[in-house]
């Protein structure tokens, strides 16, 4: 079950979220044709969501390999990418047809193309396979503010959306598949092997579920099997 939490209760994640916000602000500043920085941030951030395994790493004190950034839709994606690439403080690390990854202040932010996965924070994390990756932070405009007050960075509310058992399963190093279907069971199978190297193991019920889903899947039949798609 997906639940909403108070962002202010999780001081561990504030640094990565604030760094991401600063990256967006610096990118807007780098574009002379962009709107005022504060107004630009309140335009772009509500369309973006930070989600996935980076929070697992943060809460367990591990170094974060990358931070996945998703979009609710594709309205501002191209516009924002153009701004980011104008910013001298941001370095393009790698790109493919699924993501563009940028380094900023010791973090690598992976911007997932909206055609790969987009939607609300709840929708996005519900597509993830393991409950320990179902954690997201979204940015919302405060509905109680006047239109004039909305055009400030501080007017945005940060909202945490996560699986109700996220912290329990993380503490137990337990891999749980809580949904009845998976977009790519083969991908989940190989991810479970990767996680096993870090001390996480599939619970018995999830083992049986994954075996069933792999058997029922026809992804390998047409020769287009994608072994690891890289989305948490």
Outline the structure in words.
By secondary structure, the chain is of the alpha+beta class. The chain folds into two domains: 2-165, Beta Polymerase, domain 2 (2-Layer Sandwich); 173-217, no CATH class. 36% of the residues lie in helices and 22% in strands. It contains nine helices and ten strands. The strands form two sheets. It has an eight-stranded mixed beta sheet. Strand 5 (99-104) and strand 6 form a beta hairpin. The radius of gyration is 18 Å and the shape is globular. Residues 221-225 have low confidence and may be disordered.
Can you count the beta strands? 10
Unreliable runs: 221-225
CATH top level assignment of the largest domain? Alpha Beta
- Estimated share of beta-strand residues: 15-25%
Measured as a percent range, the helix fraction is 25-40%
The largest beta-sheet arranges its strands as 1-8-7-2-3-6-5-4
How would you sum up the major sheet? Answer: 8 strands, mixed
Residue-averaged pLDDT, rounded?
88
In N-to-C order, the SSE pattern is: EHHEHEHEEEHEHEHEHEH
Number of helices: 9
CATH superfamily of the largest domain: Beta Polymerase, domain 2
Count of discrete domains: 2
User: What is the end-to-end distance?
Assistant: 17 Å
Summarize this structure as a short list of keywords or feature phrases.
232 residues; alpha+beta; Beta Polymerase, domain 2; 2 domains; eight-stranded mixed sheet; two-stranded parallel sheet
